[in-house]
Specification:
466 residues, six-stranded antiparallel β-barrel, 8 helices, 18% helix, binds arginine
């Protein structure tokens, strides 16, 4: 996690793919257009002209040399100017540095975004009653016990981001007081896969019973003291965060969603790492990596790694994978699962969320920190993030952005696969998976995350079939 970094030459680890994607896509011909890129483009240019005659080659080499010389001169002058303009104190307040050089992307976020949902579900925290709100009726209505079954309960729990049903029962109306006597909802469908258009408004419930539900518990943390003004996490603050070790090295972050499943990024596990299931170890319930080496934290062996088949390593589209642990995690104050996002619920730009990880703390660090870091980052709408002053169309519907226009706070190499979490209705949800970014903490280049809400069906499918 990079906090307040200003030097921005990032050393990439083997998995880190924070290269300039537009170059890859424009290909050889388009490479000249992007003047800011150096050796990469030149290497490609030279490589692609290897069938030219010796004569042309000499001319080309002379030209390359001349341009290189000129480029070197320009870079030298730029560095000199930067050095002279740089404030002497390294503690200059965030946002004041570099403003003379960089123009910040000023696309404004839409304040009110229409919620596409027509039906809202909730489970009352006091009495566990399932309540439904229809778009046109402001009251929360209870659900009749008639024709109810547990697969409907599973659907409702998943709709709310809770993975599965754990308990359900019919509660006598006489036991729950006068608030629930006006209108009821009856869920009528036999359909097992979707909750759409399956309810009916009712004036009464024949059985005199309504539904109470309990879903899989997730997204809460034990009550713990908070560090004020700090950025080092304390044990138990992000109990779903895990460190994924590959060949005895911290390689990526991950997030616990059940006692046996961890979500991470596909780019962390793809290619040569994928068949080496036994080289991976998952460390849970720690904040300092050094404590992982102590005997009581043995780490968890991995049984299966499944990455999304649509993962594209050039665009980083569909950058999500699941790891199944060989033995189950014991949940405690320091190891807990997070909830998934609710169906159809897009969080608007500006929503405050958090990232955590053991990634680089300065863009040019080569070592990952010992203690877990955390940072607050607001979501950035796709409209803003895809605008020409940010990622210019590279953000697919399966990605989302979070961070600051001015940079300075961001995830970085080693944070990949880790969580971007937002608190919503008192539970924490895994909204994004750290995926990519151009550099780290650079202005106009916020972090890009896999949008977990787009993969709910895939996650359920994998967990049920593997
Ligand atoms: N790909 C990186 C990794 O493997 C994470 C990059 C995130 N970059 C960013 N600027 N947010 O750890």
């Amino acid at each position: 996690m990079s906090l307040d970094g200003d030097a921005l030459s990032v050393i990439e680890n083997p998995v880190a793919v924070s290269h300039p994607f537009h170059l890859e896509k424009t290909g050889v011909g388009g490479a000249q257009a992007a003047q800011s890129q150096s050796c990469h483009d030149w290497l490609r240019g030279i490589h692609c002209t290897n069938h030219l005659s010796a004569h042309k080659l000499v001319r080309l080499l002379v030209a390359v040399f001349a341009v290189g010389l000129l480029g070197g001169l320009v870079v030298g002058v730029w560095f000199l100017v930067r050095l002279l303009l740089r404030p002497t104190s390294s503690q200059s307040p965030a946002g004041l540095e570099d403003t003379t050089e960089t123009s910040f992307c000023n696309v404004t976020e839409d304040i009110a975004v229409a919620d596409p949902r027509k039906v809202f579900y909730r489970i009352s925290p006091e009495n566990s009653l399932l309540e439904i709100q229809l778009e046109k009726i402001p009251n929360w209505l209870p659900v009749c016990y008639e024709r109810w079954n547990s697969s409907l309960g599973n659907l409702v729990c998943r709709q709310l981001g809770y993975l599965r049903l754990t308990k359900h029962k019919g509660v006598n109306l006489t036991d729950i007081g006068p608030n629930y006597t006006d209108h009821f909802i009856q869920i009528t469908s036999e359909q097992k896969s979707s909750l759409e258009k399956i309810w009916q408004l009712r004036g009464s419930c024949i059985t005199g019973k309504v539904i109470a539900l309990k879903c899989f518990e997730c997204g809460t943390r034990a009550k713990l003291p908070r560090i004020i003004g700090g950025d080092e996490a304390t044990l138990g603050r992000w109990p779903w965060q895990v460190s994924l070790y590959y060949s005895n090295r911290h390689t990526c972050g991950g997030t616990v969603i059940t006692s046996q499943w961890v979500v991470t990024a596909a780019h962390c596990v793809h290619n040569y790492r994928l068949p080496q299931v036994s080289s991976w170890v998952v460390y849970a319930g720690i904040v300092t990596r050094s404590s992982a080496k102590l005997a009581q934290y043995t780490g968890y062996a991995v049984e299966k790694i499944i990455y999304n088949k649509n993962y594209n390593h050039r665009s980083h589209d569909n950058d999500i994978a699941l790891m199944k642990l060989r033995t189950r995690l014991n949940f405690s104050d320091t190891i807990r699962p997070i909830c998934l996002p609710q169906y159809d619920h897009d969080l608007p730009g500006g929503t405050q969320c958090w990232i955590s990880g053991w990634g680089y703390t300065k863009p040019d660090d080569v070592l990952v920190p010992d203690t877990l870091k955390e940072a607050r980052v607001p979501l950035i709408s796709a409209k803003k993030c895809n605008s020409s002053c940010m990622y210019n169309g590279e953000i697919t519907p399966r990605m989302l952005c979070a961070g600051y226009t001015e940079g300075k706070v961001d995830a970085c190499q080693g944070d990949s696969g880790g969580p971007l979490v937002c608190q919503d209705e008192n539970v924490w949800r895994l909204v994004g998976v750290v995926s990519w970014g151009t550099g780290c903490a650079e202005p106009n280049h916020p972090g890009v995350y896999t949008k977990v809400a787009e993969f709910l069906g895939w996650i359920y499918h994998i967990m049920e079939n593997y």
